[in-house]
Amino acid sequence: MAQDMLTRSPAVKEVHVLWMTTGLGCDGDTISITAATQPSIEDVVMGAIPGLPKVHLHNPVLAYENGDDFMKYWYMAAEGKLEPFVLVLEGSIPNEKIKSEGYWAAMGTDKATGQPITTNEWLDRLAPKAIAIVCAGTCATYGGIHAMAGNPTGAMGVADYLGWKWKSKAGLPIVNVPNCPVQPDNFMETLLYLLYQVAGLAPMIPLDDALRPTWLFGKTAHEGCDRGSYYEQGQFTTEYGSPKCLVKIGCWGPVVNCNVPKRGWMAGIGGCPNVGGICIGCTMPGFPDRFMPFMDEPPGALASSTVSTVIGGVIRSLRQITQRSANKEPKWRHARRELTTGYAPKNYGKQ
Ligand code: SF4
Ligand code: SF4
């Protein structure tokens, strides 16, 4: 139904991407996506990708404009004069209702009151008019670090604020691309998909229950980890600096939906456990509280690693026997008279 609405709409020639960084965050997701190559943000904005509408990006960290020149697009969007636009959220959404004075987060000034426009107000104004909402990074998706137990701001993800069943005027659910920071190609690939969808060239984006694109978050970190074979063979380290599996020093990879070990961080390089960092579950709605304290062995890891140590030890021994045998040439390939080089001294001159 929603896709029908998009495909039946007149061909979209231009799309604005309004990117709010005024959630509670560090601008790390914007910085991260500047490293994307599949596609790069430059390719999207410069029109290098066939079939895409012209894309106008409005991001306060990357924009050349500032002050009123930058803010005018936001006021136009809120007044319904900038269509269509995709709204990108970065940073968690504070709860302005629980403060005693001032504000938690804001951008721009209300022309009528002269007061700052809070992030809550921007969401209230823009969400009904956006063709799609995309959350970049764990803070905007599920609240992230700011939303951990005891935080004073009431920080939450966009879906907590708007409702998990929220749909855009075009019928799209909120799209969550978690990670701390967002993996650059994961985000740009998702944005590209949505832009194709807006252009009527792609079916409804497939999302899981946590509103993550299924093709990016359908596998666990463990399933893409370079250290998976050590786990399978029951080889676990208890200290940093070892190439072995990190589960005993706090890696949650076996239960965390994340493709970063497979995809790397930039240009295929890095990927937490691959390069020695435990997986702390930053793509998960339960992050960080359910994964703390970070350096402890996860529950269940003791049982699975004990089983793996016993069975993996036997498998490893058997493999070593096979490996020793495979490291020798088969007997039939031993040198025979007719296979020795024609330049051997005894054959010299007989050619
Ligand atoms: S380091 Fe973590 S993700 Fe990698 S194999 Fe071990 S438990 Fe799995
Ligand atoms: S491997 Fe774990 S810690 Fe690293 S990005 Fe993925 S979910 Fe986050």
Describe the structure.
There is one protein chain. This protein is an alpha/beta fold. It is built from 12 helices and 7 strands. It has helices at 2-8, 28-33, 41-45, 67-78, 119-126, 138-142, 158-162, 184-198, 214-217, 228-232, 260-263, 301-326, and strands at residues 14-20, 54-58, 85-90, 106-109, 116-118, 132-136, 175-177. The strands form 2 sheets. It has a 5-stranded parallel sheet with strand order 2-1-3-6-7, with helices on both faces. Strand 4 (106-109) and strand 5 (116-118) form a beta hairpin. The longest helix has 26 residues, at 301-326. It is elongated and about 95 Å long. It starts with a helix and ends in a 25-residue tail after the last helix. The relative contact order is 0.11. Mean pLDDT is 91; it is low at 1-5. Bound molecules: iron/sulfur cluster (2 copies). Residues 179, 221, 256, 258, 260-261, 272, 279-283 line the site of one iron/sulfur cluster.
